Each structure stands twice: as C-alpha cells, then as structure tokens.
Amino acid sequence: MQVRGLLLLLALLLVAAAAEAGKNKKEKAKKDGSKCEDWRWGPCVPNSKDCGLGYREGTCKDESKKLKCKIPCNWKKKFGADCKYKFESWGGCSAQTGLKTRSGILKKALYNAQCEEIVYVTKPCSSKIKSKSKGQ
Length: 136
Fold this sequence. Notes:
Domain Pleiotrophin/Midkine N-terminal: 23-79
Largest sheet: 4 strands, antiparallel
Pfam families: PTN_MK_C, PTN_MK_N
Helix content: 10-25%
Keywords: Developmental protein, Disulfide bond, Growth factor, Heparin-binding, Mitogen, Secreted, Signal
Order of helices and strands: HEEEEEEE
Domain Pleiotrophin/Midkine C-terminal: 80-135
Main location: secreted
C-alpha cells in the first residue's frame, strides 16, 4: 500500500514538473522585451542567391528586430514568399502558345506584404501523351 502511494506521489510530481517546463517555454516565446504592437516588417532577404534561409527586418517606433525567414525555392517565388495563394486546376493546353494557364486567388498576406489579389501562371504543355489504359 505504501509503495502504491509513493508511486502515485512520484507520478504527480513528474506531471507537475512537465507542466511547469511547458509554461516556461511559452513565457519565453511571448517575452521579447517589447511592448510595441505596430511592427512594420520588410521582405525576407535570403542569405545567399535568391531563395532559402534569410532574415526579415522589422521596425516599431525606435525599435528594430530581425527574424529568421525562408523563401521557398520553387516556381511561386515570383509572387513573394509572404503572399499565399489558392490555385485552381490547370486549364487546357493552348495550341497557339503551347502553354497551359491557371489562376490563384490571394489567401493570406504575411507581414503586411503588398500582394496582388489574383495572379496567373503558365507552364509548357506536356509533350507526353498519357494513356488511361494501364496493364493491358
């Protein structure tokens, strides 16, 4: 009976310690020493080349900060890493241009980014002919 009580007490102490550790992490994340609420953030500037890890600078009154950021290295980078779009399906292939097109509607603009409401993208039509009958 005493062993069971001791194990129960030990389990309660472990749960309490884990909860306290989680609370400290949340407080550290919130506490950045600034009470300013009107931050203005610049674009993400990659460390090298035109994509990958980098930093964005922010200012608020007489304070400034740098945050880590990442620019994706894919075809959407011309819209900016801070503009997120919801794209529709690709349209049919144009025989005149050899391209297919689709549009995207702005879903979210991060860090006060200036984003276009609707964007259009094109890509070359596939030269492969896909067959629907497999295994014949």
